[in-house]
Amino acid sequence: MFESLTNSFNKIVNKISGSKKINAHDLEEVLSDIRNVLIDSDVALSVVKDFIGKIKAKALGQEIIGSVTAGQMIIKIINDELVNLLKAEEESELIKLDPKNLNSILMIGLQGSGKTTSSAKLALWLKKQGKKVLLISTDVYRAAARSQLKILSQGLNIDFFESDSQDAIEIAKSGLKKALEQKYNVAIFDTAGRIQIDNKMIDEAKEIKNICKPCETLLVMDSLAGQDAINVALEFHKNLNISGSILTRVDADNKGGAALSIKTITQKPIKFLGTGEKTDALEMFDPKRIANRILGMGDIVSLVEKASSIISKTEAEKSAQRLQKGQFNLEDYLDQIKNLNKMGGLNSIMKLLPSSMSSIQNKAKTIGLDDSAFKKQEAIINAMTKKERKNPDTLNKSRKKRIAEGSGLNMQEIEKLLKQFMQMQDIVKKASKMNLSEMMSKTGIDKLFS
Question: What distance in Å separates the CA atoms of residue 135 and residue 186, rounded to the nearest whole number?
Answer without folding.
Answer: 9
